[in-house]
Amino acid sequence: MKNLDALLELALKAGKEASKVLLEYKDKNTLWLKDDDSPVGLADIKSNEAISEILTSSDIAICSEENILSYEERKNLEYFWLIDPLDGTKSYAKKDKEYCVLIALIHKNTPMLSLIGDVENNAYYYAHAHTKVYKNNEILNLSLEQYEKVKNIALYSKNHDNNEDFFIQNKLEGIKVSSALKFVYLLEAKAGIYPRFGGPKAWDIAAGDFLVKQNGGIMQDFDKKALNYNSPDFKLPSFIAFAKDKFKLKGF
Questions:
Q1: Average pLDDT over all residues of the chain
Q2: Considering its fold, how many domains does the chain have in total?
Q3: Which CATH number covers residue 234?
Q4: Residue (of 206, 201, 194, 198) closest to 238 by Cα position
Q5: Is 10 annotated as a binding residue?
């Protein structure tokens, strides 16, 4: 059994170091397109290097958006790190503030520890399977009433397709947010629902999935199944997340 306390401390250290790098490179970043036409920049690479250097001491394999382990390399691994060193590359390039660092520890095909680093706000959200969710060394402790107030506020993306019919049919108010900071909005009771249509990649979602569930929320595909974070191509199905189980939409 892994020492999850020690690994969470390591993830927090890595997340903070990556944040320093991203702030340093914000005014000197350069972008290019990868083979799949997604953008990547010097900041992504430098952040990835900073995280990997720290996580290497865990002796656990590291899979990153910028250095992907093949399915053959990871299909039989009991544990591996899954990281996105800069989620929200487009926002970062525009000098917006909606970008973050994502680190998750995958056990077989499920996250059991994760961190979201909200770089611009110097806020770190993290937990492992035997803890509550922490924000900057303190347990995140919002009342159920706060989550109830936002149960019909849903998040949608600035940069991806959104299903407007879903919002209309369920009478939801929408808020546009970039990157995995949408999960922070759920954790902080700024929104109650996050539906995602289309296939994101596992490294974009794993950290948020774990934290939402660990905070008493729901994260599932539209067939009510848990997501698989060790599939051959890392592509995920459409999904929906609720900040709290108690306030999920009917039918879920």
A1: 93
A2: 2
A3: 3.40.190.80
A4: 198
A5: no
- Is 7 annotated in a binding site? The answer is no
**Nearest 5°: phi and psi at 229?**
-100, 20
Site of tokens 């680093």 = 117
Q: Distance (Å, rounded) from C-alpha 159 to C-alpha 146? A: 28
| Interval 163-174 mean pLDDT | 87
> pLDDT digits over 101-134, tens only?
999 999 999 999 999 999 999 999 999 999 999 9
The 10s digit of each residue's pLDDT in 84-103 is 999 998 888 888 899 999 99
Judge whether 65 is annotated as a binding position. Answer: yes
CATH number for the domain including 64?
3.30.540.10
The 3-class SS string of the chain reads CCCHHHHHHHHHHHHHHHHHHHHHHCCCCCEEECCCCCEEEHHHHHHHHHHHHHHHHHCCCEEECCECCCHHHHCCCCEEEEEEEEECHHHHHCCCCCCEEEEEEEECCEEEEEEEEEHHHCEEEEEECCCCCEECCEECCCCHHHHHHCCCEEEECCCCCCCHHHHHHCCCEEEECCCCHHHHHHHCCCCCEEEECCCCEHHHHHHHHHHHHHCCCEEEECCCCCCCCCCCCCECCCEEEECCHHHCCCCC
Residue 227 lies in a domain: yes
Residue with tokens 């067939």: 223
